[in-house]
GST N-terminal domain-containing protein
Amino acid sequence: MLSCLKYPPSSCNSPPHPLNYALTFPPNHSCRVQVLRHLTGKRNRVSALTSRCQAKSADTEKPVSLDNENDSASSTTSSTSTSFLSFLCPLLKLFSQGDPSQARNYNLEFTTSFLSTLARFPWGSTAVTDSLNNQATISSDPPQRLQLFEFEACPFCRRVREAMTELDLSVDVYPCPKGSIKHRELVKQLGGKELFPFLVDPNTGVSMYESGDIVKYLFQQYGKRSPSVGLLESTLLTGWMPTLLRAGRGMSRWEKATPDMPPKKLELFSYENNPNARIVREALCELEIPYVLLNVGAGSKRTDLLINLSGNQKVPYLVDPNTGAEIGDYKEILAYLFKTYSLAAA
Ligand SMILES: N[C@@H](CCC(=O)N[C@@H](CS)C(=O)NCC(=O)O)C(=O)O
C-alpha cells in the first residue's frame, strides 16, 4: 500500500473531499459562477467561484465578462457535441459488450484499445518537455491535488486527461458515468450543470467547465506554456475514435456497482494513451469509484515510485488502500474491481 511517506510531502495533504465542497458551497443557483481572470492576456479565461461562494482565488483581478466570440463558439460546440453524444449513447450501448463484469474477449479488448491508442498518438503518452526552449518543464504537483469530474468515454474529458499526462500532474478523478448516483449531482451543485469535464483546483479556487479552457489553464498554471501542438485541435478529428472503438465502455454506470464509496481512494498508476490502463479506467468509471490518477508518462517524475512499488515501470498498476491489494495485470485488476465493488460483495 502506498503510504504518505513514499510520496513527496506536498502530495500528502489531502485535498478537501468534494463532498465537503458541497457543504461549503451552496448550490450554484444561489452562487453565480463568474470569470475572475484572464490568463496571459491571450483570452484564456478561467471561471472561479466568487467570494460569495467562499472560494479563495489566487488573485483578485476584477471580474471580466464572458462575452467574446470564442465563448459563443464553444457553447455552440458544447450543445452540438452533447446532443451528438446523447444520440450516439444508445447506439454505443447497443454495440458494447454488455455486462462489463462478465468474461471478456481480451483479444478484442486489447485490439480496440490499441487502435484507440494509435488514433490518439502522440498525445497523452509522455511527460512532455518544452520543445520551444528545449527544456524539461515537467511541473511539480501542486500542494493540493486537482479534482476532475469526467467520464472515460467523453472525448473532451480525454483531452484534459491527455494534458494532465503531458504536464505530469496527478489528479483526484471523480467518475461521472451516465446513471451516476454520486458525482454528477455534486457537479450540478458545484457548477450548476451536468457537463463534463469539470475541473476543481483547490490551490487557486478555480473551478471550470470547457475542456479547451481547462487545458489552457492547466498548461498556463502548471506548465507555464501553451498546450502542446495539436492537442486541442486534434480532439475533434480523432478524439472520438477511442469512444467509438471502445463502444460504450467507460460511459454508463454498471447497475450492480456498489453504491458505497470506498473509505479511501484507490490509486492508479496510468498514462492516458496506454491501452491497458484505458481498460482499467473504463472499469473504475463504470463502477463510479473515485481514485487518485497517478500519471506516469515517459519521463515522469513518478517512475521511480512506480518501480519501487511494482518492480517495473509498467502501467496500469492499481493500489487499493482499503484492502491492501496491489495489482499490475489489467485483467486481474478488472476481475478484482468487479468482484470487490459489486453489490454482491457489499
Ligand atoms: N465544449 C465542451 C463540450 C463538453 C461536452 O459536450 N461534454 C459531454 C460529454 S462528451 C457532456 O458532458 N454531456 C452531458 C452528459 O454526458 O450528461 C467541452 O469542450 O468541454
Remarks:
- The beta strands are 33-39, 44-49, 146-150, 171-175, 198-201, 206-208, 266-270, 291-295, 317-320, 325-327.
